[in-house]
Amino acid sequence: MKRIMMMAAALTFTMALYVPLAPARTTSLGSAVQDPSPEEAAAYKAWYDANAAKDYPKAMELAKAYLEKFPSGNAKNIDYLKNKWIPQMRGYFFAEAAKAKNVAEIIRIGKEVLASDPENLDYASAVVVQIRTIELSANPPNYSHAADAADFAEKSIKLIEAGKTAGDPKAFKKEVTLGYLHETLAKIYEGRDKNADKALAEYEKAGEIDSSNAGYFFTCGRIHNDKYAAAAQKYQAIPEAERTAAEPKPEVKAALDELNKQADAVINCWARYMGLTADKKDVSPQLRAQIEKALTELYKYRHNDSTEGLQKLIDQYKPSPQSNSAAMAAPGAKP
């Protein structure tokens, strides 16, 4: 089935990490050093010379070594290296790693940053975006670093739920970002772990948080539809005499209840999808037609072969200038 709407989340807060930065400013050696010991002066000069020569990997190691060896050294030098030069160069190295699709290096930098700054949402979320873009969204998906993606996604979710924002607070989109992170976890649970239930829980969570993203409702409908097909097969395997008995056995009733539960879940998810994509020009007409057909058949099954009320159900999820929160609060709205 053709992939539907690509995630167009405005994760603008990560972009600053991807833009190659200008070479770090080189301070004047004479003005920066204020009567240091000869050993400290030599260490700082070694960093200074490497930086001036634009040997940034070497300069980074020398800067770290300087800070480790002289924690109480020249205050001006320490402040510049620790709070300006190293953060800037980490951004530069992160951008270079992203450009080279070097996921191992992206993760290394992310872990290094979070080790010293555990609440740095910019890096935590940026690592997720890069692993997902480079590996999880590949064809076929690559789950080599899925564990790291899940770890950084969970860290990012906790930071956001605690009130953290990233980048420009005015541009930060909490609901979109949280939805993206929960969807990332869902992709890992479904693709790597083959755990449809955990994946479904994450997709549904994403839909609860960002109810404007049709992709979440397409996918939750797809998984529920798989469950519906399995439930239908199980129910049909029961002898007809037992299915049509005046007093069905408990296990027969349970099988029918599961079948109907999954049918209703598919209807809820795909009605949302149809409503949200009603006026979307970038959505495949063929896909919508397939979803509409399956949705109609399931709705008729659950409503005595009638489609009355189906269009009204779809229409309530069509985008409007107002917030879509009213649809989420409607009875039975949860997929």
Molecular structure report:
With 335 residues, the chain is an all-alpha fold. It folds into 2 domains: 9-210, Alpha Horseshoe (Serine Threonine Protein Phosphatase 5, Tetratricopeptide repeat), CATH 1.25.40; 214-335, no CATH class. Helix content is 67%, strand content 0%. The protein contains 16 helices and no strands. It has helices spanning 15-18, 29-32, 38-52, 56-69, 75-99, 103-116, 121-136, 146-161, 174-191, 196-209, 214-236, 240-243, 250-276, 285-302, 310-315, 325-329. Helix 6 packs antiparallel against helix 7 (121-136). The longest helix is centred in the last third of the chain and has 27 residues, at 250-276. The two termini are 21 Å apart. The model is unreliable at 1-16, 18-33 and 323-335 (pLDDT under 50).
